[in-house]
UniProtKB/TrEMBL annotation:
UniProt subcellular location: Cytoplasm
GO molecular function, one term: S-adenosylmethionine:tRNA ribosyltransferase-isomerase activity
Protein name: S-adenosylmethionine:tRNA ribosyltransferase-isomerase
EC class: transferase
Ubl conjugation is among the record's keywords: no
GO cellular component: cytoplasm
Similarity section: Belongs to the QueA family.
Gene: queA
Keywords: Cytoplasm, Isomerase, Queuosine biosynthesis, S-adenosyl-L-methionine, Transferase
Recorded metabolic or biological pathway in which this protein acts: tRNA modification; tRNA-queuosine biosynthesis
HAMAP family to which the protein is assigned, alphabetical: QueA
Description of how the protein assembles with itself and partners: Monomer.
Length: 343
């Protein structure tokens, strides 16, 4: 299977730079897997497609202001993107320019915060230990000096409102460097309507890393390696999902991160196990889904692992046909764009 099999033409003007307001007024394309039928709706209409007893699973990760700008003690500007935290105050970071960040180098962010390069963590990555004067909490300091890491294709600087807009209304657990974007369309009112209808809403946590934007550089899809991301499935979520599967009710994933979490936490029979774990599960056509029955997702980049995942779920030709229709109808693409419901 070639990466080029997952390419499509997208006019640049369809890449959303800003979210719609209110959140649930985004457009919604509904794709029926059995027939290939497409419907054009508004996101809040999703209430019509979900029914009593459905289990809707959200990713409650919270985006941290993971982008930091500093200067080397010896001179020169530095940009860091926090990736993961192996130890307290020690972070693996993506660094620009990485060549300047040799072991022992000191980075100054302001009069209170500094970082010391402790080692290498792969191409373009470093291990940096952060120190805040007076032994203050690093995460509290990060909230003040860090920037929201908007995806590179948005091609604009962060604005104050992005702190709220690039965050789901149900975000709880800090740790992501990218938003689980399918969840951005939900409002508190819409979630309440779903609950009133009898939809069971549960959460998992997967801290989205920069690997979500990692380009596939190999020609053969099967040779690509995903980055590891940590996840947690609460006991109550596992019980509810397993109960739904036993009773023939639907499990609906909000976003590819929820798909990868549930599928990673399931055994071969489809029983979901609670607890923490890490996954580099790469889902592409040919994968046999064990847990999810429907998927809410955004429109993804050409040749991306996310496009391959939705193609595995709905069929490559069906997805590419839906994307051609979305382009023709002027849908908005990517993180701040419109949504798709695959039934």
């Amino acid at each position: 299977m070639k990466v080029s099999d997952f390419d499509y033409e997208l006019p640049k003007e369809l890449i959303a730079k800003f979210p719609v307001e209110p959140r649930d007024s985004a457009r919604l394309m509904v794709l029926h897997r059995d027939s290939g039928k497409l419907e054009h709706r508004i996101f809040r209409d999703i209430v019509e497609y979900l029914k009593e007893g459905d289990v809707l699973v959200l990713n409650d990760t919270k985006v941290i202001p993971a982008r930091l700008f500093g200067r080397l003690e010896t001179g020169g500007k530095v940009e860091l993107l926090l990736v993961r935290q192996p130890l307290p105050n020690l972070w693996e970071v993506m660094a620009k320019p990485a060549r300047k960040l040799k072991e022992g180098k000191r980075i100054i962010f302001d009069e209170e915060l500094e970082g010391i390069v402790k080692g290498y963590a792969g191409e373009g990555r470093r291990l940096v230990e952060f120190k805040v004067k007076g032994n203050k909490d690093f995460m509290e300091k990060l909230e003040k000096v860090g920037h929201i890491p908007l995806p590179p294709y948005i091609e604009r600087e962060e604005r104050p409102e992005d702190r709220e807009k690039y965050q789901t209304v149900f975000a709880q657990k800090p740790g992501a460097v990218a938003a689980p974007t399918a969840g951005l369309h939900f409002t508190e009112e819409l979630l309440e309507k779903l609950r009133d209808k009898g939809v069971i809403i549960k959460t998992v946590t997967l801290h989205v890393g920069p690997g979500t934007f990692k380009p596939v550089k190999v020609e053969n899809v099967e040779e690509h390696q995903m980055d590891y991301e940590t996840y947690n499935v609460p006991e109550e979520t596992a019980k509810e999902v397993n109960r739904a599967k036993d009773e023939g009710r639907r499990v609906i994933a909000v976003g590819t991160t929820v798909v990868r979490t549930l599928e990673s936490a399931a055994d071969e029979s489809g029983r979901v196990k609670s607890g923490e774990g890490s996954t580099n599960l790469f889902i592409y056509p040919g994968y046999r889904f064990k847990v999810i029955d429907a998927l809410i997702t955004n429109f993804h980049l050409p040749r991306s692992t996310l496009l391959m995942l939705v193609s595995a779920f709905a069929g490559r030709e069906r997805i590419l046909n839906a994307y051609r229709e979305a382009v023709k109808e002027g849908y908005r693409f990517y993180s701040y764009g419109d949504a798709m419901l695959i039934l």
